[in-house]
Write a structure and sequence with these properties.
This protein is α/β, with parallel strands linked by helices. The chain has 8 helices and 8 strands; from the N terminus they run αββαβααββααββαβα. 39% of the residues lie in helices and 17% in strands. A 4-stranded mixed beta sheet has the order 2-3-5-4, with helices on one face. The radius of gyration is 17 Å and the shape is globular.
């Protein structure tokens, strides 16, 4: 059972503010820097999580073409010559310098529409030794889950959104899956900044779990 306090923690940022957002349009992903086999794994992860959420995917976004861009690379400096990326990411050069100095291996940037819903996400993965040791299916599912909602910057610092089955396979933890499903309930707003929103999410999770009992 996921209670309101647990739900609230997933969307309460390190500065103490509550901020929730979900996608307000179909997701149209594109992946750079991988072979076809990995590309199909990433797109498969998007399809699976969107199906879980009851959200739609599309071949293209009418405004942006692709609204989720996933970049795989070896060094942050590789982003600087990517055509037009500096137009999509404000302050790209200083961001690259900051991430390089921090020896970061991943970063996500979100864009929002006028209603506060997510309209674009840029996922950057520097394939260092740590990420390279993670199976492609696990890495893809983890990144897709973290791009489906605007989670707190602290949401998964102490525990992954995935868990392991007895056979060793990584799967989405049930409580995270239930939270994503509840978050995409069309009765709820696409963006919220009030903690009472967590109560509404928890209530929907409870109703869904009772229905499965």
């Amino acid at each position: 059972m996921t209670d309101a306090a647990e739900v609230e923690r997933y969307f309460t940022r390190s500065d103490g503010t509550y901020l929730f957002a979900r996608w307000g349009r179909p997701i149209a992903p594109i992946v750079f820097g991988v072979e076809d086999a990995t590309l199909s794994v990433v797109k498969g992860a998007f399809e699976a999580v969107c199906a879980l959420a009851g959200h739609h995917m599309a071949e293209t976004d009418p405004e942006l073409g692709a609204n989720v861009m996933v970049f795989f690379f070896r060094d942050w400096e590789e982003l600087l010559p990517v055509p037009d990326l500096d137009r999509l990411i404000d302050g790209l050069a200083p961001l690259v310098a900051k991430l390089s100095a921090a020896d970061a291996n991943q970063y996500r940037v979100f864009r929002f529409d006028d209603a506060g819903a997510i309209k674009a996400c840029f996922i950057f993965l520097r394939m260092d030794e740590v990420l390279s040791d993670i199976p492609a299916e696990t890495l893809a599912l983890t990144q897709v889950v973290q791009s489906m909602l605007l989670w707190s910057d602290l949401a998964f610092t102490d525990r992954s959104p995935l868990g392991k089955l007895e056979d060793g396979r990584d799967v989405l933890r049930p409580e995270i899956g239930a939270l994503i499903r509840a978050a995409y309930d069309r009765v709820l707003p696409p963006m919220a900044q009030d903690e009472t929103h967590a109560l509404r999410l928890a209530a929907r999770i409870h109703v869904a779990q009772q229905g499965l009992a």
